[in-house]
Amino acid sequence: MNYTLNQLKIFLKIAERGSITKAADELHLTQPAVSNQLKNFQDQFDIPLTELVGRKIYITDFGREIASSAERILNEVAAIDFKTHAFKGQLTGRLKLSVVSTGKYVMPYFLSSFMKENPGVELQMDVTNKERVIESLEENAVDFSLVSILPSHLKVEKLDLLENKLYLISNNSASAVKTEYTKELFQNLPLIYREAGSATRQVMENFFEQQHVLGLKKMELTSNEAVKQAVLAGLGYSIMPLIGIRHELQAKELQIISVAGLPITTTWRLVWPTGKNHSPVAKAFLDYLKEKKEAIITHHFGWYEEYR
Fold this sequence. Notes:
With 308 residues, this protein is α/β, with parallel strands linked by helices. It has helices at residues 5-17, 20-27, 31-42, 61-87, 107-117, 130-138, 199-211, 224-232, 246-250, 280-300, and strands at 50-53, 56-59, 93-100, 121-128, 144-147, 156-171, 191-194, 217-221, 238-241, 254-257, 264-273. It folds into three domains: 5-83, Orthogonal Bundle (Arc Repressor Mutant, subunit A), CATH 1.10.10.10; 91-162 and 267-306, D-Maltodextrin-Binding Protein, domain 2 (3-Layer(aba) Sandwich); 163-266, D-Maltodextrin-Binding Protein, domain 2.
């Protein structure tokens, strides 16, 4: 046996998510890289760890035993790391976050310096849809969650981080004749929606309801990245967060279509249950954000001011 800690980590994530694609997304790796590591790991066992039925991967009973062992091993390794850093007098522990999907363009910039300054801190960040983020809050499974719409049924405390601005966008083959359109424009546009339950979908539908407009739904997709690619391909228009389309706007692959009532503006907020007892790591991160957030916004999000 010559498997690596990285292979254990990758296999455990595949077992947790039941998907190579989802594991790759959460580990910030390419799908081929994850598949290759899974193959190398599997080759060291005579008994199958997974089986493929159609296009879906399933973990075998033996694979679940190995995943359980992998989790224990990785926890022990993390404990060794924590003890080493603690012996040096450094902050140690896990920082657990859940982040709505578009928040992946925001949260890393508020984490970067903190993680570099505290090498004894291990980050666990689940990037998912709004419903799952709210579930993680309800279950008290994370230290903080990043949302753009506050959950109405939960008592939470919050720290405002950044404005979230949503515009109507198209690819650059569409000709925008007018300087600003009225809401009637939406009656004839083929619109691309996020899936039900996403914060972007909720904001979009709230806007149409307030404007008394019936948007013409062309299709529904399950991520902002998929929506962006569909718009780039000319399949329709969408109302999207500015944060996720910066490079396409600057490369003139996408354009903003000016419509009365847009942009829609919400706020990215870090939230946690009211009265939550923060761990030392979570408290340190919260203190860091309160002190540094304005400098982070100025440094990393100054380009936001180009779009009003």
